[in-house]
Design a protein that fits this description.
Elements: H1 3-10, H2 20-33, H3 48-55, H4 67-70, E1 80-85, E2 88-89, E3 102-106, H5 124-131, E4 137-141, E5 151-158, E6 164-166, E7 169-174, E8 179-189, E9 194-204, E10 209-217, E11 222-232, E12 237-244, E13 249-258, E14 264-273, E15 278-287, E16 293-302, E17 307-316, E18 323-333, E19 339-348, E20 353-362, H6 366-374, H7 379-395, H8 401-415
């Protein structure tokens, strides 16, 4: 099947859409560029286009989900909880509590009047998302607002009636001196193949502190691409934790621009794969101005015949003197058939900087296993203890106890699968 035919099926055309101009511009670019193939260096190890061509050759669009059935899929993570079913905000399943100083509502075209950047340099899947833009969530935090409870968005892709392709979009605008935690959880329901193609845009104004947690717990019949784009202003701090525990093929793109001095970004990731699952994390931290810090730690655990991919890039622009940037990727292979492709990168044009990057790949320490077993601990429990210890450096970064417990439970279920 020609790639253009796949795009025609994936780009839905609703009537009377307020985002028509956005959709038209994005559709024009993506139809010209096409989806990334195996020759695209950025998607060298994650050829989603080939899978989409095979799986969605006869895709006709999403059918309406049965909301009563989905109620049991929604965990209670926060009193502020929005549920999107196949990309559409569904108030029947949501705890639509709006904290003081915040504005939470459905996305409107006016929110994008001057903010949405669509050009030929955009990621192809972000363009595909924009070409399908019909609905989403807009979160605004007014100056000085501190939100204690996490603002949680639960994305459910429902493929019980037929194949599903969804394109959720979230825009977060944090004004000066705001503090909040944003959680995005991606779940699947149904046996047919599904494709979730999400975009989240976060703007952190000066002196803001934003914590972002992305959790993926998808089925083996699900494909997922997520583009998270973050702008961090001066004296602002952005913390990101990405945790994935499933999915046929998952690609997380996280791009952060430190565009004013004294801004910080801290990135943590945990991914555990089994069977033939494939999880790919691509990160970019762009240091544009002086006196900015970034720290990045991603950890992977691969079992079965699964594959992990990590590609982390740090750019230090010419004006970004006094930059501190550190990056590390550590992996454990639990089986001989599991694999990891890892590529940490530094591109530095400034001369007064402190930067480092590195990666490690190995197996569980045999001496540690032997020590635990010699103390009467069975092998399965010993492995669980070692994996917990390996993952704890990332999990401790999730400050909300309920969210952290949920992620830890997903890890334990994956270990004991």
């Amino acid at each position: 099947m020609e790639m253009s035919e796949v795009l025609k099926r994936l780009i839905q055309k609703p009537d009377n859409n307020s985002f028509d101009s956005v959709r038209a511009k994005a559709s024009s670019i993506i139809e010209e560029k096409g989806l990334p193939g195996k020759k695209n260096e950025e998607y060298k190890y994650t050829n989603l286009t080939r899978v989409l061509e095979k799986s969605f050759a006869n895709f006709e669009g999403n059918k309406e989900a049965e909301l009563e059935v989905l109620k049991g899929k929604v965990p209670e993570l926060s009193p502020i909880q929005l549920v999107l079913v196949n990309g559409i905000l569904t108030k029947e399943l949501s705890n639509f509590v709006v904290p003081e100083g915040a504005d939470i509502r459905e996305l409107e075209s006016g929110n994008y009047s001057s903010d949405l950047k669509i050009d030929s340099n955009s990621d192809e899947f972000a363009l595909l998302n924009a070409s399908n833009l019909t609905n989403g969530v807009f979160i605004s935090l007014k100056k000085g607002t501190v939100v204690e409870s996490p603002i949680t968005l639960i994305h459910i892709t429902d493929s019980t009636k037929n194949q599903a392709a969804t394109h959720p979009r979230v825009l977060v605008n944090a004004e000066e001196n705001t503090q909040a935690t944003i959680v995005e959880l991606f779940l699947g329901n149904g046996d047919a193949t599904s494709f979730t193609n999400s975009v989240t845009e976060i703007k952190c104004a000066g002196h803001s502190i934003i914590r972002y947690v992305k959790i993926g717990n998808e089925n083996d019949n699900q494909l997922h691409v997520g583009n998270t784009q973050v702008d961090v202003a001066g004296n602002a701090v952005f913390n990101a934790i990405t945790a994935n525990f499933g999915g046929q093929m998952v690609r997380n793109n996280l791009r952060i621009a430190l565009h004013e001095s004294y801004s910080e970004a801290h990135l943590f990731g945990l991914y555990m794969t089994d069977n033939k699952e494939h999880i790919d994390n691509h990160t970019v931290v762009d240091h544009q101005m002086p006196n900015c810090d970034s720290n990045e730690l991603y950890k992977g655990i691969m079992n079965g015949s699964s594959k992990g991919v990590f590609n982390g890039k740090i750019y230090v622009q010419q004006d970004a003197q006094k930059t501190n940037a550190f990056q590390s990727n550590k992996n454990i292979l639990l089986s001989d058939n599991a694999s990891i492709n890892t590529k940490p990168q530094l591109e530095i044009w400034a001369d007064d900087v402190k930067c480092s990057h590195g990666c490690t790949t190995g197996k569980l320490d045999k001496e540690q296993l032997f020590y635990l077993k010699s103390r009467g601990i069975d092998e399965k429990s010993a492995k669980t203890l070692l994996i917990n210890a390996f993952a704890s450096e990332v999990l401790v970064q999730i400050k909300d106890e309920k969210v952290r417990s949920y992620v830890l439970d997903l890890l334990h279920k994956k270990i004991n699968y």
